[in-house]
Amino acid sequence: MNKIRQTAKRVYASVLANPVKAAKITAVALFGCICMVYMCYMCTFTAVTVAYADGERIGVVDSADVFAPVMQASNDASLITYPPAKAPSITFEVKLERNSEALSQKQIYEKVYGIATEGYREMFGLYVDGRFAAANESIDVLSKVVKTVEDTVKAQGEGVSITSSLEIKKIYCTGEYAHGEERILSLLSGGISYTDDTDEVVLDIFLSDDADKSFAPDISASNSSSDISTSVDVQAQTKYITVNEDVPFATVYEETEKYFEGVYVKKSDGKNGSVTVLYEIKYENGTEISRTAIERTMTDAPVDKVVYMGIKEKPKTASTGAFIWPLQKGTYIISSRFGPRDMGSRTYHYGLDMAANKGVTIMAADGGLVIAAYTHNSYGIHVIVQHDDGTKTLYAHMSKCSVSEGDRVYQGQKLGEVGTTGFSTGNHLHFEVIINDRTKVDPEKYLPER
Predict the structure, then answer these.
(1) Residue 52 and residue 91 in contact, taking contact as beta carbons nearer than 8 Å
(2) Residues of 6-34 as b/e, b for ≥16 C-beta within 10 angstroms?
(3) Is residue 418 within 8 Å of residue 382, measured between CB atoms?
(4) On the CB side of 177, how many CA atoms lie within 13 Å of its CA?
(5) To the nearest 10°, the Cα dihedral for 112, 113, 118, 123?
(6) Which phi and psi (to 5°) does residue 144 adopt?
(7) Domain coordinates in residue numbering, the chain
């Protein structure tokens, strides 16, 4: 350690004794620091491919993904422009850039489409036999031109027909091809001629020599020898749109012995998610003919709905959820149904009466808990069973009771025997179904057919 200290002292003394040498050492150290900072900065750059359309930067691209949207954008632009938009020249350059992400196909399409249609204005074009004649920003102006031609035909009298087709189509056009009504008529009137073939007069319309005849797209509607078409025709196109769509949540079941078999209890609510979908849509004459999802991006994941599913084995006394008749078939007749009845005075009957011999066995309509078993002034000896879903059943006018309050009973278990205790005119079972704790309903709607 002492040897190192001594060496350092000698170097320090030498530097102090020679200022020029000290300056050189400082410069070398400073240069080294600058080089390290520069190298760290350059490490943040990556090599990327940058695309240009006619010299205008499109952006960073994946070379494998660029050609399809460029061709599609160029084709779509040429179909709706006059003169037809030319496909831009695509060039590439490898550059070092920071934080550059490759454009999606949709972004490339939009940029190239914008470059290809730059300088064009939305107008309406007039076509004669499928060939461009002139354009105007107002469809009304072109409609007047067509109306003038129609009037020209009518002025020739009976038997005159027109062999040319006039069409108005939506188009994007440069300003030099936009003309007013008079100019457009002059382009047509120079080419109106009449021929008399036997008894038939034919009106033929064609473009005059100074009209542009170079554009004759093969996408016009079929022509008729006696039609003048004034419909606006949108050409074949492909568009890309982004749509936010719901992703339905799923329901998952969690087994638990907290609940009996067949019982389902919600644990937590579900929530729909959302996904952003990029669609490629193809049109023909303004009508959508296909829609294809080409890219999906999940923006919000769905949350599952969770439901407890009981797997605990049901005891014999558990409710089944479906009632049986409390008397065996063939042992009774129905003597009074649920509803209003006349017994000397107008009354309402809140149960179902089944006349039977004294001593016939009364059975539990379903499993449950006996919450009442005693003698009542009106019901006489009666039993009330509360079932697992809260519904109650009442059995009245028994001659004998076979259960006690607090007992668990199973479906079909003997509760007692038919009698005529309480306010009764003969041996029968008065049977009630009670829902929502106190609402008495028609028992026959809860019993199976017989």
Answers:
(1) yes
(2) eeeeeeeeeeeeeeeeeeeeeeeeeeeee
(3) no
(4) 26
(5) 170
(6) -65, -40
(7) 47-118, 122-205, 239-312, 332-445
Longest dimension (CA), the chain: 138
- DSSP state, residue 175: G
Q: pTM, whole model, 2 decimals?
A: 0.39
Q: What is the DSSP letter of 419?
A: B
Distance in angstroms (rounded) separating the CA atoms of residues 116 and 73: 8
The DSSP-derived string for 195-251 is EEETTEEEEEE---TTS------TTSPPP-TT-----B-PPPEEEEEEEEEEEPPPE
Find, among 8, 11, 63, 65, the residue nearest to 278 by Cα.
65
Q: Which residue shows structure tokens 């008894």?
A: 199
Peptide bond between residue 315 and the one before it cis (omega within 30 degrees of 0):
no
Under 8 Å between Cβ of 159 and 202 = no
Whether 227 and 165 have beta carbons less than 8 Å apart is answered as yes
CA distance 50 to 97: 10
Q: For residues 271 and 266, what is the distance between their CA atoms, to the nearest angstrom?
A: 14
Fold of 332-445: Glucose Permease (Domain IIA) (2.70.70)
User: Measured between alpha carbons, how far is 153 from 379 in angstroms, rounded to an integer?
Assistant: 100
List the one residue out of 350, 344, 342, 346 whose CA is nearest residue 394.
Answer: 350
195 pLDDT more than 50: no
Q: Are 192 and 148 in contact (CB under 8 A)?
A: no
pLDDT in tens, 440-449: 999 999 999 8
Same fold, 239-312 and 332-445: no
Beta carbons of 60 and 101 less than 8 angstroms apart:
yes
For the beta sheet containing 192-197, the strands, ordered from the edge strand earlier in sequence to the opposite edge, are: 160-162, 200-205, 192-197
pLDDT tens digit string along 61-89?
Answer: 776 566 677 777 777 777 778 778 777 77
Q: How many C-beta neighbours within 10 Å does residue 348 have? A: 9
**352 phi, psi to nearest 5 deg:** -125, 120
Which amino acid appears at position 238 of this protein? T
DSSP string, 164-199: --EEEEEEEE-GGGB--HHHHHHHHHTTEEEEEETT
Q: Which residues, at least 6 apart from 80, have a Cβ–Cβ distance to it below 8 Å?
A: 170, 171, 172, 234, 235, 237
pLDDT over 60 (residue 168): yes
369 three-class SS: strand
CATH number of the domain located at residue range(s) 239-312 in this protein: 2.20.230.10
If you count them, how many residues does the chain have?
450
